[in-house]
Design brief:
Length: 360
Amino acid sequence: MTSRIETKVWIVDKNVENIQSCSQVVDAAKLIRQGEVVAFPTETVYGLGANALYDDAVEKIFLAKGRPSDNPLIVHIGELEQLHAIAREVPEPAVKLIEAFWPGPLTLILPKTNRVASLVTAGLDSVGVRMPDHPLALALIREAGVPIAAPSANRSGRPSPTTADHVRADLDGRIAGILDGGGTGVGVESTVLDLTTEPPMILRPGGITLELIESVIGDVQVDPAFLVGAEETPRSPGMKYTHYAPQGEMWLVSGADHIDVQKKMRELLADAKHHGRKTGVLATEETASFWRGKAEADVVLSCGSQTNLASVAQMLYGVLRQFDDLGVQYIVAETFPREGMGMAVMNRLEKAAGGRIVRV
Ligand code: TXA
Ligand code: MG
């Protein structure tokens, strides 16, 4: 256990002019240069940042999160020149993807240079790198003058944080500071694309969809181990851990007929209630009013509209945390189609459910 430290909170309006010179950003960047750990917003989720070129600083990230040291971190850059300090080679498909999607929620796995702190890559010869599309993240990296290694700013095993309050709930007293720039946008983490294999492989679905990537570089593979319960060991070290988990036991119910799905969900809820558990339904705008009338559902939370999976991605982690705050012990949810953002949404739901899926 690390000793408790005072966690500063700096509130910054992300739309302010000359954001890089505002005192909060200057203070936070100074702490990064001094080898401390600071949380900051990106367009996906909040990150927990440290100087990516300095092992002693990176070690503090693992300690604060309670993260296993065999799970490598993503390096965030503020300008393209920094890429060459991190990556040994930048192949042609990477160049095209960078042009199309950076700054943005796409992490590229590339061969690493020796400058990257060894703890960042967990001993691998490759490194994940991205340029985040958030004015506060970019200002912090540029002001610090070094690339910043950052995982999501949650305690290991908790849903990733999409607000500064989520970060505080998990890490207050364990990190030097939090830059509070309000809620994040995409809501789920970046897509991780491995460019050291041929064809390239998506190791984690995220903000930039499979369809978008293929529109720029043609065929890519998808790691067959995405789904919890699959036989294959995930290629991305981080994907093997139970992530994104609410404290309650979560079940997904999937099926072609929504009447059958709702019937099954009601059965599961009734059974859980019978065993004295506080129950919850992860609903959508379309289904929430149906569930609100039902005695077997103690808590009904909507995570957006079925017709807008980007909104579902944006709200998902916050809603999972709300179930915890309300002490819900048993949660059921419907599934979503896997196209577009649906692939990332379903991947996170499956992880949150720890592979507990009923098919009707
Ligand atoms: O949106 C995001 O990507 C957020 C924000 C803060 O940028 N970051 C994030 O980091 O989600 P983290 O550490 O929670 O997830 C990084 C993922 C893990 O699954 C890790 O195993 C994988 O990327 N990864 C990192 N470097 C890798 C490498 N060299 N080879 C394979 N997978 C790698
Ligand atoms: Mg994470």
